[in-house]
Amino acid sequence: MPFNKYSKINGNYFPPGDKSISHRILILAGQAIGKSEILNLLEGEDVINTLKAMSLLGVKFKKKGEKYFVFGLPPGSLFEPKNTIDVGNSGTGIRLLLGLISSNNIKVSLIGDKSLNKRPMKRVTEHLSKIGATFKMRKDTYPPISIKGVGNAVPLRFDISIPSAQIKSAIMLSALNTNGTVKIKEFKSTRDHTENMLKSMGYNIKVKENSTHRFIEMKNNKELKKIKYTVPGDPSSAAFLITAACLKPGSKLIVKNILYNRTRIGFLKTLKKMGGNIKVTKKRKVKNELIANIRVEQKDFLKSINLSSNEIPLQIDEIPILSIAASYAEGLTIFKGLKELTVKESNRLLLIHKNLKKIGVKSEIKKYDLYIYGDQNLKKGAAIINHENDHRILMAFYIANLICKKNNIIKDKSCVKTSYPKFFQDISRLSN
Ligand code: S3P
């Protein structure tokens, strides 16, 4: 049966490996002496580009069956690559690699695709310049980038004013080869996988939090230990199917082995507040990350919601799919403070607004706040979706077929491979 307004979501589901964790385990295992092993690595294009980048920097990888083996190099000993590193579509890839390279005495050129070439990098390089690294960028902020790292990085205290795990993690990776103590102050709403992984690898890192901020201290007086790591399921990918199940009363979805880190599950809280019938079972901690199973058994339609700007970083990647939920929920939904959404793989704020209009949903943008006027009527649909090859916009508006009278038209679906290559396979298996 085609995926449309009659479909419900049913079955058992293992989401693909988490993208943020996949990038980080390739990089950090690449800085540990010995043979690390990774299972359930996300084989999306973004992550594979990070793997290729690490290979060009001298780390050896081998794949046997489902398992990746990593033969790392200690911090400070990366090779100067002969060729330019192409990170494709990945903002996480380029920003984390800039951090890692900045404290190695090598020169590297990095390029990306059309979308990445429009994304600001100064937010990372302004910090990394302070340790002594130098950068050349288009208009002083956009890729392509050439970087000259330093072997004697200065240990500093950083205060990060944008809530961004990519900025924080770039600085943390630069600290791996910085003598002395590096101190970071940042918003506690950003994802903390780099911290958790470093702890699991025996690194000297201290993390404290108050009600709003996180304080990190890193000393590079202990080596990174090799690790055996199974990447948990990606909540940001699972969000498409979980939201789809919440949208359609009568759905029953069981999600297994999903990452349940506080900084990543804001969307689950939001869906619950909207009336999503979501139960969490089998919570367990593995390698400092919380993992769980989730059961969605939807009986009623969803209600509208208001999200304040400080709740947004906890669900920044899920706003596109939550916008679809809001469209089919009775009443006015307001998402406040979406500035960061304008500098993702596309200007997501604008694309959500434009595509909602196309499918027949009224929305407004007021400064950086998004207003969505939802109801439980099916939308007209039959729209040509403008996704600008942004994977999450495409997947969100594909799920929108569930709430439209006529299916929408999506040309060129290939960008799902950046984060969720099996998206359409999972949808066909779980929808009926
Ligand atoms: C990510 C951090 C977030 C997120 C991105 C992945 C990461 O970006 O949107 O998809 O893995 O660190 P920001 O750090 O720019 O908020």
What's the quick description here?
With 432 residues, the chain is of the alpha/beta class. Helix content is 28%, strand content 26%. It has 2 domains: 10-16 and 232-430, Alpha-beta prism (UDP-n-acetylglucosamine1-carboxyvinyl-transferase, Chain), CATH 3.65.10.10; 19-221, UDP-n-acetylglucosamine1-carboxyvinyl-transferase, Chain (Alpha-beta prism), CATH 3.65.10.10.
Salient structural properties:
26% strand; 12 helices; alpha/beta; UDP-n-acetylglucosamine1-carboxyvinyl-transferase, Chain
Mean pLDDT metric? 98
Distance between the termini: 7 Å
How many independent structural domains?
Answer: 2
Kindly state the number of beta strands: 22
Number of helices: 12
- As laid out across the biggest beta sheet, the strand order is 1-14-16-15
Sheet/helix structural class: alpha/beta
How helix-rich are the residues, as a percent range?
Answer: 25-40%
The CATH homologous superfamily of the largest domain corresponds to: Enolpyruvate transferase domain
Present as ligands are: shikimate-3-phosphate
The appropriate CATH architecture of the largest domain is Alpha-beta prism
Shape: globular
Structure description:
The protein has helices spanning 19-29, 45-56, 91-102, 122-128, 165-175, 193-200, 235-247, 266-273, 319-327, 348-359, 391-399, 423-430; strands spanning 10-13, 35-39, 60-64, 67-71, 85-86, 107-111, 134-138, 142-148, 157-159, 181-187, 204-209, 213-219, 228-230, 252-259, 278-286, 289-297, 306-307, 331-335, 362-366, 369-374, 379-381, 404-406. The chain has 432 residues and is of the alpha/beta class. It folds into two domains: 10-16 and 232-430, Enolpyruvate transferase domain (UDP-n-acetylglucosamine1-carboxyvinyl-transferase, Chain), CATH 3.65.10.10; 19-221, Enolpyruvate transferase domain (UDP-n-acetylglucosamine1-carboxyvinyl-transferase, Chain). The strands form six sheets. It has a four-stranded mixed β-sheet. Strands 3-4-2-13 form a four-stranded mixed β-sheet, covered by helices on one side. Helix 1 (19-29) crosses helix 6. The model has no long low-confidence stretch (mean pLDDT 98). The structure holds shikimate-3-phosphate. Residues 20, 92, 164-166, 169, 191, 316-317, 340 line the site of shikimate-3-phosphate. Shikimate-3-phosphate is lined by residues 20, 92, 164-166, 169, 191, 316-317, 340.
